[in-house]
Amino acid sequence: KQWYQRRVAITAGIIAKNITKIEKDFKTKSTTYNNLRSNLAQHEKKETGSLVTRNLGPIVNEEDFVIASEYLVTVCVVVPKQGYKEWEGSYWKLADFVVPESSKRILEEGDQALYTVTMFRKTLEAFKNNAREKKFVVRDFQYSKEKISQQQNEVTNMQKAKIKAYVPLIRWLKGNFSEAFVNWIHVKALRLFTESVLRYGLPATFMTAVLEPNKKSEKKLREKLYALYGNLDKSASDGADMGDIPGVFMSGDYYPYVYFDVNTAFVEAAREL
After folding, report:
1. What global pTM score does this model have?
2. What is the pLDDT of residue 191?
């Protein structure tokens, strides 16, 4: 009896060590990949949101702005569709020193449009306040060719890093899935052995088998097994619900033979990776 206990304890310890290592490595690798994916998703979201929140770098061009002027500044304004006529007919009245005929519609999308307008820097704050009252949204955006290029490079590098991290992660998952599955089956085997000892005692002279019936023949298989092994436990009818039995791991359906279900539906999903 002590020999059996020692062997079960040693085997369980090896399995626990293997699974702990797989779990630790998985957390490290998946965290790295998920961080890359999350950061990329945040940047991509800025490229696809509404004009009020979207990154304007890919939308505007250098010729739409007054660049490197000490006195003049060009700003981007988001105007709702119902306000197009009002904007185009009065934008230069929103503050002093707004350059007449400087407004240009850059992009119309959905129920809003993006305009640019040029004014003297000293009147910018007054323009923002008056525009807000009219429900025109002045974007906090300054054109910088270098910054736009840098942002595009960051997205490109994140896309490359994501792909670079994805390939080895999938390769690692495929390899370690097999290792984890083998350890899981060993756990099932240990439970089967321990349950059998509790049921039938020592020495362990019982037989272990793996059966994979199709759905149509499962009931017939149960009947055959009960016909063969029903004598092992007269208190158990075929698949009776015995509740929790002291000293027995199983609950629910109780058979005169020791039975554990091995659900392998996820194996097909793993093969598709």
Report:
1. 0.55
2. 87
